[in-house]
Amino acid sequence: MPYQKLAALTFDDGPNPDVTVPLLDILLEARIPASFFLVGENITPLTVPVIERAAKQGCEICNHSFSHPDMTGLTPDEIRREVSVTSERIRQITGTAPRFFRPPYIAVSEEMFGLIPMPFIAGFGCDDFDPEVRTAERITRTMAQLRDGAVILLHDAKGNQQTVDAVRALIPMIRAEGYEFVTVSELFSRKQITPRSHIVYSYAEQTTMYAETE
Is residue 139 a contact partner of residue 202, using CB atoms and an 8 Å limit? Predict the structure, then answer.
């Protein structure tokens, strides 16, 4: 069946070898890319090979701040440092500076829009950072929010085996609905959309600051 719709699978809060590596195994077997939004302080000698592998597999490496604070309460210098240090660490490893930023807690301010020179990405999440949201519920919530051009927001933080299990099930389910998996960059490119400032994107065609609720 030819793909007619696009979705970007994304992961926050890594890299973490115990979770990110099994996810990369699943992506490799399925022959699909994803986009990983890294927390800078998690980029260590132990995780550098994980990042290198993700990039080699065709995944996109993006910025999720250095220490995952609520950045709306930071000074301008603190905001710049949270982003610039993480971007530089990513550039040193992959050879390419990240193109997209996901604000921690999806908390944004006018000041952040002015200081951070990257499009802001949110996504349709399933609260998979909460261990009480079980694997089956993560699958159900993700599928319920699926739409053409969607950014799917999941987490590869330490101990998040339930998301590994959910992704293993979700990939064939989403494909069966006629979707092709792409990186965030590919999503906007294929949709012929240039991301705009003051939008926190959960899907490519979004025109409001946040995605409209159903």
Answer: no
Is 137 in contact with 97 (CB distance < 8 Å)? no
Alpha helices in the chain (DSSP H): 17-30, 48-56, 76-94, 110-115, 135-145, 161-176, 184-191
Q: Which amino acid belongs to residue 140?
A: T
The span from the first CA to the last CA of the chain, in angstroms, equals 29
pLDDT digits (tens, 9 = 90+) for 12-58: 999 999 999 999 999 999 999 999 999 999 999 999 999 999 999 99
Distance CA 186, CA 120 (A): 15
Domains of the chain in sequence order: 5-201 (3.20.20.370)
**What's the pTM?**
0.96
Task: Return d(Cα 185, Cα 103) in angstroms, integer.
Answer: 17
- DSSP H/E element including 61: strand 60-63
Task: Return the ∠ at Cα 101 (arms to 70 and 153), rounded to 5°.
Answer: 85
> Which among 146, 100, 147, 121 has a CA at the least distance from the CA of 210?
121
112-140 pLDDT, tens digit each? 999 999 999 999 999 999 999 999 999 99
| DSSP-based three-state secondary structure for 151 | strand
Residues with a known catalytic role:
12, 155
